[in-house]
Amino acid sequence: MLVTRRALVAAAFALPVGGTVLRPALAGETAIFAPGGAAISGYDPVAYFTEGRPVPGQANHALMWRGATWFFDTAAAMETFEMNPAAYAPQYGGYCAYSMSMGALSPSVPEAFTVYRGRLYLYSSVNARATWSGDISGNLARADANWPTTIAGQ
Length: 154
Prior knowledge:
single chain; 154 residues; alpha+beta; two-stranded antiparallel sheet; 7 helices; globular
């Protein structure tokens, strides 16, 4: 049996990725805002980084991660996410980052976003994004502190 280097690399990644990406949400894991079961309302999380804009995902490029279905525009984007989902998933489970800075869970919309220091933040509106941008470091510190207790109380 001939084993190629690519097959070995794929097998090496399959175990940790399969265990991370394909398992259902467990108690204590981060909740994902997923209206109708679709994270980011069906938009491709990788596109925010590669295209700098929201891009609708395709049904033929979808996977389950943390109890939600994530859609991607291309197979390459889906593979990129599979290799490191935490790098591309929005912060605070995709809930509005500005609301989280005030200790509240609010839905987000795909069009109101920021990529800041390599992380994706979504907001309930463009106005919420503008307010967040007025004090990014302060809002970020408050949202990071609020996230564990806010999501636990959900």
